[in-house]
């Protein structure tokens, strides 16, 4: 950005501009003090803004009806992720009807751009973007979310149940 | 030579060519599952339909021999329609398993559907459920539900290995492949059935769920497992090497490779490698960078009597490396005591009838030729005599890359210990090794070069990616030990 300097006399005087600025501040202070109109700022964290239900916030890993993780470790979310922030380690499940499941599922939320492509790529409704957006942490490690945090954090109250159930699908003959 | 018109193009093919081969040789797309060029024709999938002029109905291309003047097309509407419906039939009972199926990404069913199918399924019936995750021994997992009964694997065990373990059981939509009473499929060529399976019915336990195939790159190289020198493809990404698969090589291994060879990517991965040179010091052993350690060693052996320096070489390095070793170090330093370590040489002629040879070195022949040319051929008993007599001050062992095949390793270690100073070169740590210097080497996946197989055929290996970038190739070692610097270009590494 270049700075344009206008060399006329009016601009070289700074006091008039400062005084007019102070005037605006003073006017708003009076208006706000006597409550003539609603203030635009929020008193965070006591007051919070309400986002629309379609807001793409913190990721949620859904669970099956029995509470186990829905994800099948197909890696489509990790493949589709433009920020390359999803790490999955797949393993063999003891139950042959499950066959494959993730033993580790980590999202590096500092790399994540919250685009929602993972949610779109998922063939089994295992990952969703939830409404939460307050995910503070003390150091970098706090921002790498693992299965426990993604699926069973206290805010989820025991986990979000996936709409796609394998058993129902099998019963329907698909 | 018969001439045929394929989709309007006139081409000439050899006598007795199958129509499907004529299509494939001319890069014409043709849908097919059950046809495999290395196996007999079964004609069970009915997917390679073509229209032959003068023939009222579509015919399968795999079971039709080319005749002179044939006019064939598979681009007509009726053929497209029939292929689409045959595909629909194949997919009737195929489960929607793609997310957990290991074959996804290299699945022919997926490919064919995207190319020739793309219909809305019109099947009202329920899918027939079959057995999943059937354990077929230590190598293979069978999923009968995913099988589309192309019978490639059955034909493979019938025709190639002639072990006949696999078969198709039951009839109609209950038909499934399997072994009798789920007996393990453990012959030494069993994993080839996984390669030829067009769907995910047979999956390899070794590779299962390790990586999605679309994360892997592949490059062709030569298997270092024995003197046959099969062409193989190694699959790798930034996390390491993940599997070996056979690559077509007409006059060597055809389409196949043995299961023992498939394990030969593991020793190249970081977990199993020697990362730093180990140098014995007065207060235990210390780690050094390989190049620096070799330079230190070069200074130490400078003053030694060259008559008392012995070199033991194994046939697991490339021609280029042997050449550099001889021309850069052995010849200028006038080292005469060079010995070829042959493991069980009397059995080297053994052959399992398909691919595997008992000489487990990929380049024995290359080494022998080179030693002969440089007149450095010495008898092994001479080394033993010298060691017993305490005549060896410094012994450089250019050790085997794949140690598992050297079953006399521990005996030899004891023998080599009689030298005053032992220098060992290998890519992996060696059990019970006490050496003054242990210098890490590159594996066959990390260097370019040439192997000479049992029949004298020279074949190239390719560099893919470095796992231990500091490791030296034998040529690098030869330069450093001779007191020179590694040249920036021109060195085979």
The CATH architecture classification of the domain at 59-171 in chain A is 2-Layer Sandwich
User: Radius of gyration of chain B from the CA trace?
Assistant: 27 Å
What is the overall silhouette of chain A? elongated
Percent of residues of chain B in beta strands?
15-25%
Query: What gap, in angstroms, lies between the N and C termini of chain B?
Result: 47 Å
Pick out the low-confidence regions of chain B.
none
Provide mean pLDDT of chain A, rounded.
Answer: 89
| Largest sheet, spatial ordering of strands of chain A | 2-3-5
> Runs of chain A with pLDDT <50, length 5+?
none
Number of domains of chain B: 3
**Count of helix runs of chain B:** 12
Mean pLDDT of chain B equals 92
* Helix-strand sequence of chain A: HHEHEEHEEHH
Class based on secondary structure composition and strand pairing of chain A? alpha+beta
CATH topological fold name of the domain at 59-171 in chain A = Alpha-Beta Plaits
List the total number of helices of chain A.
6
Strand order of the largest sheet of chain B: 15-14-20-19-18-16-17
Tally of strands of chain A: 5
Description:
The complex is a heterodimer of chains A (174) and B (493). Chain A has helices spanning 9-12, 15-33, 76-80, 117-121, 147-152, 166-171; strands at residues 59-61, 86-92, 100-108, 127-129, 144-145. The longest helix of chain A is centred in the first third of the chain and has 19 residues, at 15-33. The model of chain A has no long low-confidence stretch (mean pLDDT 89). Chain A has 174 residues and is α+β, with helices and mostly antiparallel strands. In chain A, a hairpin with a 7-residue loop joins strand 2 and strand 3 (100-108). Chain B has 493 residues and is α+β, with helices and mostly antiparallel strands. Chain B is 22% helix and 20% strand. Chain B contains 12 helices and 22 strands. Chain B has helices at residues 19-25, 77-90, 108-116, 152-160, 192-196, 259-262, 290-301, 319-330, 364-373, 380-388, 409-416, 474-481, and strands at 3-6, 9-12, 49-52, 59-60, 70-73, 134-136, 140-142, 166-169, 176-179, 202-204, 217-222, 231-237, 240-246, 277-281, 284-288, 309-313, 337-340, 394-398, 421-426, 437-440, 449-452, 458-461. In chain B, helix 7 (290-301) packs across helix 12 (474-481) and helix 8 runs parallel beside helix 12. Chain A binds chain B through residues 72-76, 79, 90-92, 96-97, 99-100, 123-124, 169-170, 172-174, and chain B through 96, 98-100, 104, 125-127, 129, 132-133, 208-210, 212, 214-215.
